[in-house]
């Protein structure tokens, strides 16, 4: 009597495991996409997630990078589950074709995601100089998907794995370098020049507890507006590590912002840290302006601040952002 060899458990459950990990990745990237689009602060204990999400590297083709990650994870979950919806006893041939085809798609997708995640880790540690737990989790998800894709079935031709890895890996790396070529060039220019118009994301080194140095200068209108805001009791609530707060500072310029009354909501800040006042005021995001008793979250154009504060002085402001709406 010939005993039938049992199927390894990893082969029986590999598709479900891949789908589960891909679902976790999809939820993570969906959350980051919402945070990026709403310009809100991410729930992150290291306080570095906002630095990463607000960097120029977090946007591709004008869209949040996390959105592309969401699409990739959703595709991986779909490829993993499609064959499971076909009854193997009734449509065996169709089931076999779907399994073979989707395994190749899973392998190619996992390789591409792993290569791209590796490059993002390089950017994270050597370019942005910040640690984002969500980014690290996404990299782990990608490597886990690659591992499960390789060991989750019996590959008759191991050369197929290596050939796919080389081709997909090279295409992904070349494409990634091409996509970020302009970003790296812009970063190099920004590090050596303070020319305007303003970049929507800070680039370069920051000082812990202080943030980034203000590069822009102020005109008479910015200084007059800043003094007016202070005179009527306006308060800006910030966090030293918040890139959006830095964007607001750049709109005022170095001279004018020194006139602004601001409160740092992080206890580790070195410039008027008062987290107790932030909590009392009900601050939920940074920056938030308190004008005439009302709260106005997010970065505000100087024209909008002038309108809200009933400013009557000159409005020929010299600093303008590229893409604020």
- What is the ordering of alpha helices and beta strands? HHEEHHHHHHEHHEHEEH
CATH topology of the largest domain: de novo design (two linked rop proteins)
- Quick one: how many beta strands? 6
Shape descriptor: elongated
> If you compute it from the alpha carbons, what radius of gyration comes out, rounded to the nearest whole angstrom?
25 Å
Question: What is the average per-residue confidence, as pLDDT, rounded to a whole number?
Answer: 85
Straight-line distance between termini? 75 Å
Helix content: 55-70%
Describe the sheet with the most strands: 4 strands, mixed
Number of helices: 12
CATH architecture of the largest domain: Up-down Bundle
Give the class-level CATH name of the largest domain: Mainly Alpha
**pLDDT below 50 for ≥5 consecutive residues: which ranges?**
186-200
Helix/strand-derived category reads mainly alpha
Strand content: 5-15%
- How many domain regions? 2
Name of the CATH superfamily of the largest domain: VKOR domain
Query: Within the largest sheet, what's the order of strands?
Result: 4-3-5-6
Q: What oligomerization state is this entry in?
A: single chain
